[in-house]
C-alpha cells in the first residue's frame, strides 16, 4: 500500500499569521497564492463600524468572492449598494464591478477568495501601509498603484 506524501498539507495558524491592523480595518492573508501554487488566495478581512472599504472597481484577470462571517457588510453589486449578513456570499467574476464597506454600527468580518491566486497580498500590504501611515497618495500615484494590481476603479 502506498501513502500520499505527508508534506502536502500546509497549516497556517492565526498565531503564526496574525491579523494586521490598518486603521479601522484588519486583514490576514490566510492562504496567499504563494502557498496555494497560484490556485487561489484567501483573505480574512475585518472592518470597524461605519468604515470605508473598497469603492466600486473590477479586475480583468481574476475573480473575487465575498463570504460574510459576522456583522453586516455592504456590497456594491448590480449597480447598487446593499447590506449582506452572515452566511451571505457574492462572486464578482472578472470584469464584474464590485465594492464593499461597513455602513452598520457593528464590526463586520468576511472572507475574500480570489482566483487564480495572484500575488494579491502585495496589494493588501501596500494599502494597509497607506492606511497605517496616514499617507494620502495623489491621483497619479493611485492610478499607477491600481494599474500595478489589476484594479480598475469605476464611477458609481
Would you kindly provide a written description of the structure presented here, covering whatever features stand out?
The chain has 156 residues and is an alpha+beta fold. 15% of the residues lie in helices and 40% in strands. The chain has a six-stranded antiparallel sheet with strand order 1-2-3-10-5-8, with helices on one face. A five-stranded antiparallel sheet has the order 7-6-9-4-11, with no helix packed on it. Strand 6 (73-77) and strand 7 (80-84) form a beta hairpin.
Based on the model shown, name its key terms.
five-stranded antiparallel β-sheet; Cupin domain-containing protein; alpha+beta; QDO-like; 11 strands; 2 helices; 156 residues; six-stranded antiparallel β-sheet; Jelly Rolls; RmlC-like_jellyroll; RmlC_Cupin_sf; 15% helix
Topology (SSEs and partners):
Blueprint: E1 20-22, E2 25-31, E3 41-47, E4 51-58, E5 63-70, E6 73-77, E7 80-84, E8 89-92, E9 98-102, E10 108-115, H1 120-133, H2 139-148, E11 152-153
Antiparallel strand pairs: 1-2, 2-3, 3-10, 4-9, 4-11, 5-8, 5-10, 6-7, 6-9
Number of domains: 1
Just give the CATH class: Mainly Beta
CATH topology: Jelly Rolls
Q: Sheet bearing the most strands, described?
A: 6 strands, antiparallel
The CATH homologous superfamily: Jelly Rolls
Mean pLDDT across residues:
91
Cα separation of the termini: 59 Å
Gross CATH architecture:
Sandwich
What's the gyration radius in Å? 16 Å
